[in-house]
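Schema walk-through. Below, the input block comes first and the output block second. Nothing else is stored per chain. Lengths vary across the set, and this one has 237 residues.
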Amino acid sequence: VLSFWIVAMTSATLSIAGSSSLLYFIRAKGQWMKRSNGIFYRFMLGISTGDIVLSFWVLTAYFFFPREVGLNYTYGNDATCSFSGFLAIFGSTFTNIYNTGLSLNYLAAVVLGWSPLKIYTRIELPTHILGFGLSLLLPIIAVSNNYLNTSSTTRVCMFGSEPEGCNDKDDIECERGGHDNAMYQTIRLSHLAILLACAFVGIVNMVAVTFVATRHLRRGNRHAIATHGVRNEQAEE
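--- output ---
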């Protein structure tokens, strides 16, 4: 388990360095502050921010495990476990929503031919609202209701019950979480649904963009070949 997390933490460190560099260069350029011309850069700011949060979760998740788990070099408790789960839910939700917003931006520009102003009002602004709103709402509800706990199978502080196995045994009462709790299931399934929906929409958008861009490229190549042929004929005459 420890060796796995060492590899994951190394990858997370590199990811934080890369996303932090990207944030620095985007902010230094200043293009992101322009309403219409800075749409792409603002989406990248959101994606990079979410990636930093998610990578920080990977970097610290092992150490935030409660000591009761019985792993070496774990120094956490229920509070740190909840904080770790908060980072996981926020980072994953935030990054996926902004990735979807970026793919919708390409779809609107390439396939639908929308203007930058129309993309700003109909895609970017809703992305900011949903990105911050859902990414904060879900983990806040989860933390405030003690839904984030350690799982012995996944070794991750996420949705779960404590003590472990209390959902399957009638003689053990769940002190934290609880699969029979309607709100618990709503928040857990909402988080999963957002991730799946973002993945599906992103794939469909990029397939459509690739198809249209390839078709335009082929038309451009045929036009260039035809134009070149006409010029050659005129030169021969």
